[in-house]
Write a structure and sequence with these properties.
Blueprint: H1 8-20, H2 23-30, H3 34-48, E1 53-56, E2 59-62, H4 64-84, E3 87-88, E4 91-92, E5 94-101, H5 102-109, H6 113-119, E6 123-130, E7 143-148, E8 155-162, E9 165-168, H7 171-174, E10 190-191, H8 196-204, E11 215-216, H9 219-227, E12 233-236, H10 241-246, E13 261-267, H11 274-286
Parallel strand pairs: 5-6, 5-7, 10-11
Antiparallel strand pairs: 1-2, 3-4, 7-13, 8-13, 9-12
Helix pairs in contact: 1-2, 1-3, 1-4, 2-3
């Protein structure tokens, strides 16, 4: 056990010298002289009673003891630096890490991201996208935005909004479609939920053809494939309003089905921070106003699906 106090400056001098393998370069980084760095390292070696460097004619080499010490110091100084960087203008920038299904991120959240940042400039929002398969605890998430029925083990869930599915395709394909039965002659792109097209054809009142289109684990990717003419995709049209406005994709039929909703979820055991509450309050307030529903819309509720 060490009886002497280990100065922080000595540890910092050693860490910088170990990265550069040079007292001179470490001095330039720390804005002190080469002699001052060497003195600090010598003092640390005396306190520990061992050598951390082998002094070579040109530079330094770590001893086994130095090799054992450097990763611990590098990690510690890195964590200190990361926390200090979160202080700004007398405020502490808190972090909120949100995992979200990619469709929700691109179709709803990203267009509103500036609004959140303007309202909460000292909250660092970190977004991780996924395909609806997420481990909140394992991935270190504060929140996960998912598509489904709201039932996930060990989590709290707040409903955001439903996302009805309807066929979309490229304009050239849409010109060939006059009625739902015409889809039987088209390539029908699929998500990993195999029954979605069957539900849609049932709602449209026509038999479901054999569906052999490509399978996608992301609606974002499937939408791009549809826009490029690869086939007709069954998508949550609310999330692709921009592409529809731009004319890259067309919605040939008004029939739609509802197989789930988007939910904000978090671990029941999670202690909410001030920043987490800020994000949750903003998100729930932003989605509070329901979108208008047209008389042509037809819906059917059933189970959950990954979107």
């Amino acid at each position: 056990m060490l009886n002497s106090h280990v100065p922080l400056n000595a540890l910092r001098a050693f860490e910088a010298s170990a990265r550069h393998l040079s007292f001179t370069k470490a001095g330039l980084e720390l804005r002190v002289t080469q002699a001052a760095v060497s003195h600090q390292v010598n003092s640390l070696e005396e306190i520990l009673g061992l050598r951390l460097f082998r002094r070579l004619p040109r530079g330094l080499a770590l001893t086994d003891e130095g090799q054992a010490l450097i990763p611990v110091l590098a990690d510690s100084f890195g964590r200190i630096r990361a926390v200090l960087e979160r202080f700004e203008d007398g405020h502490f920038r808190d972090v909120v890490t949100v995992g979200t299904v990619g469709t929700f991120a691109t179709g709803w959240l990203l267009p509103r991201l500036k609004e959140f940042c303007d309202i909460h400039p000292y909250v660092d929002l970190r977004l991780l996208t996924n395909n609806n398969r997420v481990d909140i605890a394992g991935e270190g998430l504060d929140y996960a935005i998912r598509f489904g029925d709201g039932s996930w083990h060990g989590t709290e869930a707040a409903p955001l909004f439903t996302a009805p599915l309807s066929p979309v395709c490229a304009p050239d394909i849409a010109k060939k479609l006059r009625r739902p039965a015409d889809l039987a002659r088209q390539t029908l792109l699929r998500s990993y939920r195999a029954d979605e097209w069957a539900h849609w054809f049932e709602a449209a009142g026509v038999p479901c053809p054999v569906v052999r289109g490509a399978i996608f684990d992301s609606s974002v990717t499937m939408a791009e494939a549809a826009a490029q003419g690869a086939g007709v995709a069954l998508l949550p049209v609310r999330m692709f309003a921009r592409e529809l406005r731009q004319g890259r994709m067309v919605r040939p039929f008004g029939v739609e089905i509802t197989l789930g909703a988007y939910w904000l979820t978090w671990l029941k055991s999670k202690q909410q921070t001030k920043a987490m509450r800020a994000f949750q309050d903003w998100l729930l307030q932003s989605v509070a106003a329901p979108e208008p529903v047209t008389s042509k819309t037809r819906r059917r509720s059933r189970g959950s699906s990954g979107r």
